[in-house]
C-alpha cells in the first residue's frame, strides 16, 4: 500500500503575502480542485491532504475548507488541519478541526514565526500527544523571503522530541538542505519520521540523503510524500525509483530495497491513523 503523507489542497486565495514568492519560484500553477486532486491520487492508495497557516503573513487554509475538500475527493483521503501556534485561539482551532473529522495537524513554523521549543506551546503538544494526533511539520528551506530559516532546522525538532517524546511527527522534505542532521534526529527519537518529498529532484542532495539513511540505519523512519500539486505522486514514485536504478559507482548504491520499502511503508500505522 502506497501512502502519500504530504499533499496540499490550499489555493492562491489562502497564501497571503507568501503568494508572490511562491509564484516567483514555482511559476503560475492551476488551482487545485478536488477532481484534479482525485485524478492525481490514483497512483497511491491513501493520501493525507493539508493546508497552510501563517497568520503573520495572512496565510490561512480554514478547517472548513479542508474538511469540505476531503469530502469531495473520490479516493481514500485523510485531512489535516493547518494551525499556527502563535494564534491565541489555537486550542479552539484544534478542537474545531477534530470535530470536523480532520485527523492531524500541519505546522509551518518557518513562515508562521513560532519556535516549537518555547514553553508557551507545551499545552498544545501535550494535548496532541494525549489525543494521538500526528503532526506534519514543514522543515528545511522555503521560497519565501519572509521565512525564518533557523526555526526550520531539524535540530530544533530534536529539542521538541526531547521535550515531548510521545508526539508523533513527520519532518517534511527530510529538512532539505539539512538532511544529514535530519537523519541523526530520526535515529534518536522513536516517534520522529521524515518524508522524502523532493529528494529525487536535486541529484546530489537526494543521493546523499538516501545513502546517509542507509548508513545510519534509519530507512525505516522514511515515509513517502509527493508535495502535490508541486509534484504528482507519479513523479515522486518514478523519481525515487530512478535514483535506485542509477549507477552511482564508485560511490555506494541507493538500494532498490531502500526505495521500495519507503513506497510500501505502512505510514498510517506509524502515525496512529486508521485507513479511510
Secondary-structure element order, as H and E?
A: EHHEEEHEHEHHEHEHEHEHHH
- Major sheet: size, sense and barrel closure? 8 strands, parallel
Overall pLDDT level: 94
The number of domains: 1
Percent of residues in helical segments? Answer: 25-40%
- Tell me the number of helical segments per DSSP (H or I, 4 or more residues long): 12
Q: Find the structural class using helix and strand composition.
A: alpha/beta
Number of strands: 10
Q: What share of the residues does DSSP label as strand, in percent?
A: 5-15%
CATH level 1 name: Alpha Beta
The CATH superfamily is identified as Metal-dependent hydrolases
Strand order, sheet with most strands: 1-2-5-6-7-8-9-10
Principal-axis shape? globular
Model regions low in confidence, pLDDT < 50 over at least 5 residues: none
Q: Tell me the CATH topology.
A: TIM Barrel
Report how far apart the termini are: 13 Å
CATH architecture: Alpha-Beta Barrel
What is Rg? 17 Å
Amino acid at each position: 500500500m502506497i501512502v502519500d503523507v504530504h499533499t496540499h489542497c490550499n489555493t492562491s486565495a489562502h497564501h497571503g503575502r507568501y503568494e508572490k514568492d511562491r509564484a516567483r519560484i514555482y511559476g503560475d500553477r492551476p488551482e487545485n480542485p478536488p477532481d484534479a486532486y482525485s485524478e492525481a491520487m490514483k497512483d497511491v492508495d491513501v493520501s493525507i491532504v493539508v493546508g497552510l497557516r501563517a497568520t503573520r503573513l495572512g496565510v490561512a487554509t480554514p478547517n472548513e475548507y479542508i474538511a469540505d475538500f476531503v469530502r469531495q475527493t473520490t479516493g481514500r483521503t485523510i485531512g489535516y488541519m493547518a494551525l499556527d501556534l502563535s494564534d491565541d485561539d489555537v486550542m479552539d482551532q484544534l478542537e474545531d478541526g477534530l470535530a470536523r473529522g480532520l485527523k492531524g495537524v500541519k505546522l509551518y513554523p518557518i513562515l508562521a514565526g513560532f519556535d516549537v521549543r518555547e514553553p508557551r506551546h507545551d499545552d498544545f503538544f501535550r494535548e496532541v500527544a494525549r489525543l494521538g494526533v500526528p503532526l506534519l511539520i514543514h522543515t528545511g528551506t522555503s521560497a519565501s523571503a519572509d521565512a525564518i530559516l533557523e526555526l526550520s532546522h531539524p535540530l530544533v525538532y530534536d529539542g521538541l522530541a526531547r521535550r515531548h517524546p510521545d508526539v508523533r511527527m513527520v519532518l517534511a522534505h527530510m529538512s532539505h538542505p539539512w538532511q544529514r542532521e535530519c537523519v541523526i534526529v530520526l535515529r534518536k527519537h522513536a516517534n520522529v519520521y521524515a518524508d522524502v518529498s523532493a529528494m529525487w529532484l536535486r541529484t546530489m542532495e537526494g543521493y546523499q540523503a538516501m545513502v546517509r539513511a542507509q548508513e545510519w540505519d534509519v530507512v525505516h523512519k522514511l515515509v513517502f510524500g509527493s508535495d502535490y500539486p508541486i509534484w504528482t505522486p507519479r513523479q515522486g514514485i518514478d523519481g525515487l525509483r530512478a535514483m535506485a536504478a542509477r549507477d552511482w559507482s564508485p560511490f555506494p548504491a541507493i538500494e532498490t530495497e531502500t526505495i521500495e520499502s519507503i513506497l510500501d511503508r505502512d505510514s498510517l500505522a506509524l502515525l496512529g491513523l486508521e485507513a479511510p
